[in-house]
Amino acid sequence: MLDVRRLRLLRELARRGTIAAVAEALAYSPSAVSQQLAVLEREAGLPLLERTGRRVRLTPAAQNLVGHAEAVLERLERAGADLAEARGGLAGVLRVGAFPTATRALVPAALVHLARRHPALEPMVHETDPAAVAHALRAGDLDVALVHTYDFVPTPPEPGLATRPLYGEAMYLAAPAEPPSGAWPEPGPAAPVADQGAVLRAHRDAPWITATPGTLCHTMTLRACRAAGFTPRVRHRIDEFATVLALVAAGQGVAVVPQLGVTGPPGAGVALTRLDMERRTEIAFRSGAGTHPAVAAFAASLRAAVPPDLAVPRAGA
Prior knowledge:
- By secondary structure, the protein is α/β, with parallel strands linked by helices.
- It contains 11 helices and 10 strands.
- It has 3 domains: 4-83, Winged helix-like DNA-binding domain superfamily/Winged helix DNA-binding domain (Arc Repressor Mutant, subunit A); 90-167 and 280-305, D-Maltodextrin-Binding Protein, domain 2, CATH 3.40.190; 170-277, Periplasmic binding protein-like II (D-Maltodextrin-Binding Protein, domain 2, 3-Layer(aba) Sandwich), CATH 3.40.190.10.
- Helix 1 (4-16) packs across helix 3 (30-44) and helix 1 (4-16) packs across helix 4 (60-87).
- The two termini are 43 Å apart.
C-alpha cells in the first residue's frame, strides 16, 4: 500500500527538483526525505528517481505516480471538507495568507464579518507574497490565501491548487507633480485611461521605484516598461506602497501602483495617471478544499468586504 505522506514528498520533489528544497519546504532533514522516497520506491516495486548531479529526475513511472498523487490528495481534501460539514459549527484555526495591501485594506473587514458569523473560528493571518503562496498551501502552512496576477505577469495553473476570482484593481503611474498641481484622479474603474505606452515612455529617463526582485510587483513594472520600449533605471526597491508614494512625492522617482496602494490623497507632490492594465486578486486553496466550511466561510467574508469601487476582474484576463 502506498503511503500518502510519501506521495506528497514525491509530488513536492517533482515541483522543486532537489531533495534539499523539499526538505526545507516541509521541515524535514534531507536524509529523512531521501529515506522516505527510498521506502516509496520499494513500495512501488520499481525505480522512481534518477540522479543527475545535485538534482534528482523523476522516472516516467514516478511522473505518472505524481499525477495519481495529485488526484489522491485532492480527494483527501474533499473528504476533510465533507467531515467538517458533517460535524457542523466552525471552530479551530484557519491559517490565512495575504499580501500587504490586501491585509490592510480588505482583511480586517473580512475578519469582522467572519467573527460575527463564526465566533469559534480562529483565523491566523500571515503576510505572504503571492509568489510564496503555492508552496505554503501545498506544505499545509496555509489553508487559504489571497494571490494576485497582473496583465504582464500571467501565472500558470499550480498543480494541487485552485483559485476563485475576487476583484480587480486599476493601476496607476505615480509621478512627482509639477507645482502647484497636487491633485490626482479619484482612484477606481471610472478614472479615464491614458495611452499606457506613451505615459511610461514619457518617464523612461526618470529613476524608477519598484518592489523587491522576486515579487510579482517587481516583474510587472519591468515587463510593462519593456513592452513600452525601454528598461527602467531602478533607484529604489520598496514593497510598501505608502512608502513608494512618499518617495515619489519627495522627487525620488516614478512607480506603478495599484488602486489599493492608494490609501488616500497624498497631498502635493504626487500625480496619478491611470494605465490600461489591471491587478486581479484571487482566493487560493488546495484543490478539493473549496467546499471546506471554514474556507468557504472566509471566502464569503472576503467577498462581503470588497469595496464597491473595485472593478470586477476582466473576463479571460
